[in-house]
Amino acid sequence: MTARAAFDLFTIGHSNHPIAHFLSLVQSAGVTAIADVRSVPFSRRFPWFSAKQLPGHLTPAGIAYVPLGDALGGRPSDLSLLRDGVADYEAMARRDTFRAGLDRVAEGTRRFRVCLMCSEREPLDCHRCLLVARALAERNMTIGHILADGTIEPHGRTEERLLALTKTDDDLFADRPARLAAAYRRRAGTAA
After folding, report:
1. What is the rounded distance in angstroms from the CA atom of residue 153 to the CA atom of residue 13?
2. Number of independent structural domains in the chain
3. Cα 89 from Cα 110, distance rounded (Å)
4. Which residues contact 19 (CB under 8 A, 6 or more apart)?
5. Which of 59, 68, 75, 140 is most solvent-facing, going by the fewest CB within 10 Å?
6. How many CB atoms neighbour CB 27 within 10 A?
7. Are 128 and 92 in contact (CB under 8 A)?
């Protein structure tokens, strides 16, 4: 089994990649569909990642484009989903529209090699990891985060980095799931 075959789906941050490099990254992982989870699928600085232009680059490469920011975006328009001006990912994850978006992604993985796309380069700085991939992992899906150098980091390893970054391993009395939930909550307060 190849490394990429070990994953049900992938995530990637388009960051400031030239479109050719971005295409190389997703093609190397065998991606056949990009699920755009940006709330606002537009980039002034990197217009090739705007929703109007991106399909024109993906289609010739045999990659489908599916906008899912309305269901899985990280910037809610509903103000009740904000706590102190920051998106409350736990509250967002309980919404029916969010769960329907997850269902759509899971269904898509039956026909495509799906990659969730947002803009942030680092998975731990982005809701695609802290909200969406977390929820999909809780559904027993295996997720690989495509990093800028082409490395595919398993979500479990990303969670280990999260625990180390948020220093939640110092509580000897909390079990791993409790420490991980606290780490997600803490990191979500700083994510874009």
Report:
1. 13
2. 1
3. 26
4. 48, 49, 57
5. 140
6. 13
7. no
